[in-house]
């Protein structure tokens, strides 16, 4: 379904040139759910954008559904894009249109007549589980519902390939799971090939058949997800695998911490990539009337920022602790709040 051959992408930049993707070769088969994982700046977005012609490789070729998207332009590329659709982290919905109108939009563009359009939109609304929300505007929907609209719109014209650009990164863990389950359903029911990029290994583990790990513009490890989990070869892959295997280990830690800190709340922060825990903690101390005890955790620094988990203990008036936790939730970190009792 997808063939990437000797692809390189160089961007011009003020400092000279940036090689965003280098020496990438990849074959993705029909019906596969393929994941690409890497920290921020690894080249994932550039790679996925070359699959639908949003970026053109500097060298090499990209073929999707028998069309060489790295060569074609204009109306030919527009036609190809009907078979290669995309969903995004921030949904990219039309804010002034209802759910129904958003989903109908690509059908309108494709010239589907009104009767067919209405029928198809109804089918899609059922498929993604948005019955009853047809006339809502995006601002009236939860994050998960917005992504359901994004998915319905993306598959409206029966594409062959669905590209997912950090499609669950703005969602809480429970909603993430429900969206991932929907993607698996669609993959099974429609035989759709799915390529997703993410910095979260649990997304890969939950739904992908194979995974490519990207670092510094290159694919440094590639294989079936189960094998990569069982036997990661590269340092970076080991770190990603740890992201997912750590929770078992931390159960004990949490038990100990809750015994030691019976008042207030213990908060587990999960950082990946560019998240920075220091400014977050500084902000907590400065702006909230809480005491912040920094407890144990594993934080490692890379050139992209920090990753790992950290436990902190917040104590003070209940309302002030709640406000501090709301603030943490508004930051780009994974958060779990542990309470005694
Ligand atoms: P990722 O999606 O893994 O975060 P990207 O593909 O966005 O990685 O970026 C890879 C590298 O290419 C980064 O160094 C980034 O700064 C650079 N880059 C991405 N897009 C552009 C662009 N349009 N112009 C210049 N440099 C870019």
Automatic annotation (TrEMBL):
Keyword tRNA-binding included in the entry's annotation: no
Origin: domain of life: Bacteria
InterPro entries attached to this UniProt entry: AAA+_ATPase, ABC_transporter-like_ATP-bd, ABC_transporter-like_CS, ACT-like_dom_sf, MetN_ABC, MetN_ABC_transporter-like, NIL_domain, P-loop_NTPase
GO molecular function: ATP binding
PROSITE patterns: ABC_TRANSPORTER_1, ABC_TRANSPORTER_2
Keyword Cytoplasm belongs to the record: no
Start and end residues of each ABC transporter domain: 2-241
Pfam families, A to Z: ABC_tran, NIL
Protein name as annotated: Methionine ABC transporter ATP-binding protein
Species, as recorded: Cytobacillus spartinae
